[in-house]
Write a structure and sequence with these properties.
The chain is mainly alpha-helical and about 150 residues long. About 65% of the residues lie in helices and about 0% in strands. It has one domain. It has helices at about 30-45, 50-75, 85-115, 120-150. Helix 3 runs antiparallel to helix 4 (about 120-150). The protein is elongated, with a radius of gyration of 20 Å. Its main location: membrane.
Length: about 150
């Protein structure tokens, strides 16, 4: 006589979809990453990009990261991942690579902030660049938290 065994429950956590994205770590970091990254871009654009070589890279990283993160957030909200394990790998690789790029951008923005201290529009551009540097480092920290917290889910 064979007994039917109960189905084994999956031990892997499911990926969030819909509003649950905003309540689940690390996916709840996506919206603050987008908002802080947008502030970086806006603050640098307000300085008329005084140092194009430095701040051009910062604007590229912040704008492209915001757009890709927005696409990733939309894909989580609409459940395009279909609970595939590959999405966790994609998410981790994207956020890890973006954290490295944002760190380079934050350092270049800090350099632009130091250089703008004695510039022709000194107080205003220095304050805008300081705020952009602050948000660039905060955004870097958020991307690092997101990349590493995927492993501790």
């Amino acid at each position: 006589m064979a007994s039917a065994s109960p189905p084994v429950a999956s031990t892997q956590p499911t990926l969030p979809s819909g509003p649950a994205v905003f309540k689940t770590v690390p996916y709840a970091f996506i919206l603050p990453e987008i908002l802080c990254g947008t502030w970086v871009w806006i603050l640098i654009a307000a300085t008329s990009v005084s140092f194009p070589l430095l701040q051009g890279w910062v604007m590229y990283v912040s704008l492209s990261s915001c757009l890709i993160s927005l696409l990733l957030l939309i894909s989580y909200l609409f459940g395009f991942h279909k609970n595939s394990e590959n999405w966790k790998v994609l998410d981790s690789l994207y956020h890890g690579a973006t954290a490295i790029l944002y760190m380079s951008a934050a350092v270049l923005q800090a350099n632009a902030t130091i250089r703008s201290e004695l510039g022709p529009n000194s107080p205003l551009y220095y304050q805008l660049n300081s705020a952009a540097s602050f948000f660039a480092f905060i955004t870097t920290f958020l991307y690092i938290l997101h990349a590493f917290s995927i492993y501790y889910q």
